[in-house]
Amino acid sequence: MDQASPFVSTPRRDIQAGLRDIAPVAVAALPIGLLFGAIAAAKGMSPLEVTLMSALVFAGGAQFAAIETWISPAPILTLAFATLLINARHVLMGASLTPKVRMSRVQTVLAYFFLTDEAWALSERRALERPVTGAYWFAMAVVLWANWTLSSTIGAILGSFLGDPERIGADFAFTALFIGLVAGFGKSRVTLVTVAVSAGVAALVHYFIGAPWHVASGALAGIAAAYLAAPEEARS
């Protein structure tokens, strides 16, 4: 009998919800994956190498940063340090999500391999109403992983035939989508202050210092702002 409240969680419902929520993200990711593949191919990477990088690294921002500085021989220490700074935000996102997921420790560790900004934002939004189950997470995250891997591979194969996505604003698609997801979290004073401070500091650091320092700076500023803006009893 499936006459229960729509808020009752079942694996089938959670899978359907995950697929529904990730669909617009997957569409927005297509031009970004194609762009990455084309740039990587132009730097001398083969389609197979692009496929393996996207499948095993699965970190769009870090992959773009690596490709931007890609030379032969590759500056391994520089790439590793830039990737560490860019992906440091995943520690904060994981700490935020862990109390809200309904998964075993092993499932959670495996799930966080697929952690992205968009998966985090969608899960946080869902957690406002119910816990995030493994069925929801993996339906959502695995689709985005497969979409990113496939689109970047196609981009590497097609290469220069794609043209420049910046001409039509496709390079901003993921950023616009993420802003929309964050805007749906609510309009509390703490949320507004945290987002405003984090975005402002990240923008200033990016302008005056450059990438990838703006990522860590924005994250730390957001944490400090959230702590200071929270009610005093919530800090104790």
From TrEMBL:
**Segments crossing the lipid bilayer:** 22-41, 73-92, 135-162, 168-185, 192-209
Task: Show the coiled coil region(s).
Answer: none
| Keyword field | Cell membrane, Membrane, Transmembrane, Transmembrane helix, Transport
**GO annotations of cellular component type:** plasma membrane
Q: Where does it live in the cell?
A: Cell membrane
GO biological process terms, alphabetically, are: L-valine transmembrane transport
Topology term for the membrane: Multi-pass membrane protein
Looking up Pfam families in the UniProt record yields: AzlC
Q: Would you say which domain of life the source belongs to?
A: Bacteria
Q: Which family does it belong to?
A: Belongs to the AzlC family.
Record-given protein name: 4-azaleucine resistance transporter AzlC
What is the source species? Microvirga lupini
